[in-house]
């Protein structure tokens, strides 16, 4: 059987052209039928199991790059619209004032997730087609189907959080279609639940997957728990999280492991978790699902721009108080590069708020290993052998008052120097490309889509919503104990405390908007903690809890797809 697909988002603006071409060439002569033979297409790739696997590889690659690569990478960019960070390079430029239905800056989540859904539906069609050959067994066929359903569920979970009611598309679109409408969230969540329940039954157990990075039952139960939290099904969220915690041999790492490049000489197990090469080790029992960023290879690979996004633009500091260049950087071939291979070349697209850099650490500043200097770099040093300030800590008071020293306080503290999560997103002294720019702000180390510490905090969240505070405290204390932080009691537990703990453990890893919405804290936390100096609270308005449907998508349906309140 031959299928023809609209290879774009679900609301393709090429529909009218497609209809026209169909009318012009609508005959049955075989010689007019396109038969791709010398390039990959669904018709010559997805008809065998080996081709289906290639398609699933494509889903992995597509989601990885959408979440982690580029200036508008979803994990990094959208966290800068929450309580934990803002754009340090341009604080007043990326705020909720520019969140409009026509601003293409915010299309990526919608477009990429519906593209992921479209590609998943296409694969599912061929997986279920009796004409598809090459299956080793019915079990393999069901496993591949479960992996594809996982990706579709992942996309719908994000879309539902950001947009509310959304079009639910569960079949491949093979003919022009312009009548998409919004489906109630209850129906969307029901479909996602069914997809993930199938996945939990047919995916392999952790350790039995074909390759590192592929989806397992553990990841499916983890995503299911997050969907249940989002849907308000808290006991189901507890049950799904418990499967992850108890059934598959996962455990928090509590002792040093791996081959960490411990350039500071003061490392710990938390540093090991994020060091290059440690995420996929068999001894790493905390990893549930890891995004694979292959090494910088001439024939491909993948890169993560976490350092570029999160780190401060230290190399733009200018001159020190004595008039010498503040940072000379590495000496290569007799010339100073201006960059250091410990810090890479950050840009400051996600500058952490005071809530993240200081407030959440107040009770355990010195003993919580997650706040250790090798995990969060708070002190930077002048680096110029000719300067009398060489080797001294950079302190902006050395230049005198801002009224007289000619410096820009906003640039100094929002863009140039601030606490840097160097252990998590940095890759100290491990430059794989562009050595003259110390890696150019990119890293090829793998990163966690999911790890067990988050599972404990997810289950704690569900217990809080169920009023079971002691159980919530127990789960939170599992995470805090590993970090050498003081244990808490049931009386300490609240959603607010949980959100603080998620910052301590998961900052830079999770999409914070999703967590704030499902806990009902989105507006409160933005207004309380986002201290953007040029746009306090990111200029958020009440209706910004949900994002606008892109106007292009509404136009493509002739208005059948309606807009979220406040954006009309």
Short structural description:
The protein has 568 residues and is mainly alpha-helical. It contains 20 helices and six strands.
How far apart the termini lie comes to 44 Å
Q: Give the SSE string.
A: HHHHEHHHHHHEHEEEHHHEHHHHHH
**Structural class by SSE content:** mainly alpha
Low-confidence stretches: 2-35
* Biggest sheet overview: 2 strands, antiparallel
The number of distinct helices, counting runs of at least 4 residues, comes to 20
Compute the CA-based radius of gyration: 25 Å
What form results from the Cα inertia axes?
globular
Q: How many strands?
A: 6
Helix percent reads 25-40%
Q: What order do the strands of the largest sheet run in, or round the barrel if closed?
A: 1-5
How much of the residues is beta strand, in percent? under 5%
Summarize model confidence as the mean pLDDT.
90
Layout of helices and strands:
Blueprint: H1 15-24, H2 42-45, H3 49-68, H4 74-79, E1 85-86, H5 108-127, H6 138-163, H7 185-202, H8 217-231, H9 234-247, H10 269-274, E2 287-291, H11 306-310, E3 331-332, E4 335-336, E5 351-352, H12 354-357, H13 402-405, H14 409-416, E6 447-451, H15 452-466, H16 469-482, H17 495-506, H18 512-518, H19 522-529, H20 551-556
Antiparallel strand pairs: 1-5, 2-6, 3-4
Helix pairs in contact: 3-5, 3-6, 5-6, 6-7, 6-8, 7-8, 8-9, 8-15, 9-15, 15-16, 15-17
What does this molecule look like?
- It is a single chain.
- This protein has 568 residues and is mainly α.
- The chain is 39% helix and 3% strand.
- It has 20 helices and 6 strands.
- Helix 7 (185-202) packs antiparallel against helix 8 (217-231).
- Mean pLDDT is 90; it is low at 2-35.
């Amino acid at each position: 059987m031959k299928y023809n697909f609209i290879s774009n988002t679900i609301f393709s603006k090429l529909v009218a052209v497609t209809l026209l071409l169909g009318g012009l060439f609508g005959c049955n002569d075989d010689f007019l039928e396109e038969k791709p033979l010398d390039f990959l297409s669904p018709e010559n790739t997805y008809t065998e199991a080996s081709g289906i696997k290639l398609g699933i590889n494509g889903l992995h690659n597509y989601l990885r790059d959408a979440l982690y690569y580029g200036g508008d990478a979803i994990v990094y960019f959208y966290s800068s619209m929450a309580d934990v960070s803002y754009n340090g390079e341009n604080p007043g430029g990326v705020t909720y004032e520019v969140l409009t239905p026509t601003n293409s800056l915010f299309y990526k989540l919608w477009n990429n997730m519906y593209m992921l859904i479209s590609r998943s539906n296409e694969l599912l069609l061929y997986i279920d087609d009796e004409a598809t050959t090459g299956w080793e067994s019915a079990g393999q066929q069901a496993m591949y189907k479960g992996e594809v359903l996982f990706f579709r569920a992942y996309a719908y979970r994000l879309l539902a959080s950001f947009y509310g009611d959304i079009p639910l598309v569960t079949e491949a679109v093979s003919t022009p279609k312009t009548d998409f409408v919004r489906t109630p969230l209850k129906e969307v969540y029901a479909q996602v639940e069914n997809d993930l329940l199938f996945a939990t039954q047919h995916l392999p157990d952790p350790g039995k997957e074909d390759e590192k990075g592929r989806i397992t039952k553990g990841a499916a139960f983890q995503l299911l728990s997050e969907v249940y939290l989002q849907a308000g099904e808290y006991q189901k969220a507890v049950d799904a999280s418990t499967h992850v915690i108890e059934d598959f041999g996962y455990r928090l790492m509590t002792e040093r492991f791996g081959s960490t490049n411990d350039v500071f000489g003061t490392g710990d197990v938390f540093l090991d978790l994020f060091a290059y090469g440690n995420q996929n080790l068999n001894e790493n029992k905390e990893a549930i699902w890891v995004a694979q960023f292959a090494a910088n290879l001439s024939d491909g690979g993948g890169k993560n721009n976490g350092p570029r996004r999160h780190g401060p633009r230290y190399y733009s500091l200018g001159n020190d108080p004595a008039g010498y260049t503040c940072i000379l950087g590495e000496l290569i071939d007799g010339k100073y590069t201006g960059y250091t291979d410990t810090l890479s070349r950050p840009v400051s697209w996600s500058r952490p708020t005071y809530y993240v850099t200081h407030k959440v650490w107040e009770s355990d500043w010195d003993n919580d290993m997650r706040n250790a200097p090798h995990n969060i770099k708070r002190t930077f040093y002048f680096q110029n052998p000719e300067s009398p300030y060489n080797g001294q800590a950079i302190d902006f008071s050395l230049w005198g008052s801002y009224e007289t020293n000619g410096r820009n306080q906003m640039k100094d503290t929002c863009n140039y120097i601030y606490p840097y999560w160097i252990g998590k997103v940095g890759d100290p002294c491990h430059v794989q490309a562009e050595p003259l720019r110390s890696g150019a702000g990119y890293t090829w180390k793998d990163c966690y889509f999911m790890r067990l510490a988050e599972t404990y905090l997810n289950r704690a969240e569900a217990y809080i919503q169920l009023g079971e505070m002691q159980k919530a405290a127990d789960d939170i204390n599992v995470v805090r104990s590993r970090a050498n932080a003081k244990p808490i009691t049931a009386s300490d537990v609240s959603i607010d405390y949980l959100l603080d703990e998620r910052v301590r453990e998961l900052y830079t890893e999770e999409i914070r908007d999703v967590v704030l919405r499902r806990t009902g804290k989105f507006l409160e936390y933005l207004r309380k903690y986002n201290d953007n100096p040029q746009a306090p609270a990111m200029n958020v308005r009440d209706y910004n809890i949900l994002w606008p449907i892109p106007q292009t998508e509404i136009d493509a349906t002739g208005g059948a797809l309606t807009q979220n309140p406040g954006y009309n």
